[in-house]
Write a structure and sequence with these properties.
Helix content: under 10%
Largest sheet: 7 strands, mixed
Structural class: mainly beta
Number of strands: 11
Mean pLDDT: 96
Strand content: over 45%
Order of helices and strands: EEEHEEEEEEEE
Low-confidence stretches: none
């Protein structure tokens, strides 16, 4: 069972930066490296949406709304994934969730963290 814990959220002014971290436990580093990792977010009254993903081969994918501002990265030895967020905007305010995904016998299995709040406000 994979456990994910996010950290790094907080209150920031527009144009500011934050770095979110997600630590995985319950699996080895070699097993962690196989998982696709991602960051999702959910603002009040909206559905959870994809922010960024990074595959086991470190290919990245971003939502159009964050391209050029956010960067996802991973450290398999530390079993961590990061989201560097620059140029934050009011619309980035949300709870950010870390996700680990793997396909087992053609079935996708997802694990989620509890989330960390990011608030962009002046």
């Amino acid at each position: 069972q994979v456990q994910l814990v996010e950290s790094g959220g907080g209150l920031v002014q527009p144009g500011g930066s934050l770095r979110l971290s997600c630590t995985a436990s319950g699996i080895s580093g070699s097993a962690f490296s196989v998982y696709a990792m991602g960051w999702y977010r959910q603002a009040p009254g909206t559905q959870r949406e994809l922010v960024a993903t990074i595959t086991s081969g470190s290919r990245t994918n971003y939502a159009d709304s964050v391209k050029g501002r956010f960067t996802i990265s991973r450290d398999n030895d530390k079993k961590m994934v990061y989201l560097q967020m620059n140029g934050l905007e009011f619309e980035d305010t949300a709870v950010y969730y870390c996700n680990a995904a793997i396909t087992v016998f053609s079935k996708r299995v997802d694990y989620w963290g509890q989330g960390t709040q990011v608030t962009v406000s002046s």
